[in-house]
Amino acid sequence: MCSLTEKDRPIVQLLLNTGTCPRCILRFCCVGSQALYRCPYKDLMNDLKEFLKNNQEKEDMVCFDVVDPPCKRIRLEHTEGPDELNHNGALQQIPSVNNENTAMENSAVKVCNVCLGILQEFCEADFVKKVCQKVNSADYQFTSFVFSVSLPPQLSVRERAAWLLVKQEMGKLGLPLAKDDIVQLKEAYKWIIHPQLSEELGVPADGKSLFEVSVVFAHPETEEDCRFLATACPDCFKPAKNKQSVFTRMAVIKALEKIKEEDFLKHFPWPPSSPKNLCVALEIQCNNGAVFVAGRYNKYSRNLPQTPWIIDGERKLESSVEELISEHLMAEFKADSFNFSSSGREDVDVRTLGNGRPFAIELVNPRRIHFTAEDMKGLQQTINNSSDKIQVRDLQLVTRSAIGRMKEGEEEKTKTYSALIWTDKAIQKEDIAFLDDIKELKLDQKTPLRVLHRRPLAVRCRIIHTMRSEYIDEHHFRLHLKTQAGTYIKEFVHGDFGRTKPNIGSLLNRTADILELDVESVDVDWPPALDN
């Protein structure tokens, strides 16, 4: 139950007479009962009329009996709004509503001059069904929803004008009215729409839900309402990329906070005439929060890049690790797009063996989100059966925050490599045996020439923790290395024209080059190992 008191009478009378809808009147009377806003529009209008008819001496307070039936579509007759500001920019005296017929006629506006119909037609069952049809046709999996609404920026201007009018009227009674005392339009709208959407969709509204239903409203007829603010506060309206208009909601709010009340009243008339047309719902959109899948991959090909290899717009190789994994995830999760990340990367000609390299894929706006452990195991098998170039293991759903553990390991953990090395001068087993005794060898690695186009020029200190050599013949040996993450192994072997010091060539005092390189382990303890 919610009440209007005697002090609200002049506000109800004033706003009804200027073309404001019943729900906006409740907002400006600071009524906080959610259930009251959900009452049918006609009932609210009739209750306000009854409130004005009451004898002030006999009744201090009139209480509304709150019921919560479904909203009904109504059609109200349109009447033109009262006169605008006088020539001095002051609020013009609004005719009194002592004559009940005058109040009743003026209250029958088709479109509210404050909310532009948001709290009228767009609270009705027909619009709710339209939203739900859009949601259902998009075929999302969800167990709750959050509802968001984008309102035309000119609503903030009209809201400010109405607040100044009501504040002036309250001032006559010696009562203050702060802007924050008024029930915000978005809040009132969600009070009305949430229960209807919940009932129609069969799931609860939840502010923390990852599934968002959003509606974008526009009102072309009143777009000029904001124009005066550009002259009064030009620094608030600056062109921005990807913005069709400088009159964004945030820019308008910033200008309204800056402009003085007297300057506002000089430029924007109250009451403005009631618009002829309702707002239009430009977009009804659905979006599911991203789902994150992690695992480890092995790469067995020496002709497969980790990510698509494109140079000057031309594709060099037909596939990549990223694509071989993600194409199956995209299909199963029915996502719009994806973002691939991993704990480091290997070159196109480098294999990744052992227990593989940790990776994570962000699936953007997925339609399907409910996967069991068995589902993930089946998906892993599908990926592995699709190509002999890669294999994945430990495929699982993870949280966004958990991915941070993978990134932390990129620089902190160690990696193990196996390199096939060639030397120009003949070697014997004893010539390379000393490498096994070298521990914690410090390198200074200037950014390699081969990656200088995408990495900043810098000298990085890296550590070779251990080495173990395997003699093959006079010009070949295999070197097993355990290194700090981020070490450039190829450059450590051949020296990169002296940009990596020391290097295998300088240690052996001969020219050395690398023929093959394998990553044998990436020592990042993530994601958790599964029973595969």
TrEMBL record:
BP-aspect Gene Ontology terms: tRNA pseudouridine synthesis
Reaction catalysed by this enzyme: uridine(54) in tRNA = pseudouridine(54) in tRNA; uridine(55) in tRNA = pseudouridine(55) in tRNA
Domain Pus10 N-terminal eukaryotes: from-to ranges: 112-286
Protein name in UniProt: tRNA pseudouridine synthase Pus10
Source organism of the structure: Cepphus grylle
EC numbers, comma separated: 5.4.99.25
The entry's keywords: Coiled coil, Cytoplasm, Isomerase, Metal-binding, Mitochondrion, Nucleus, tRNA processing, Zinc
Major localization class: cytoplasm
Domain of life: Eukaryota
GO cellular component, one term: mitochondrion
The protein's enzyme class: isomerase
Gene3D superfamilies, sorted: 1.10.10.2050, 3.30.70.2510, 3.30.70.3190
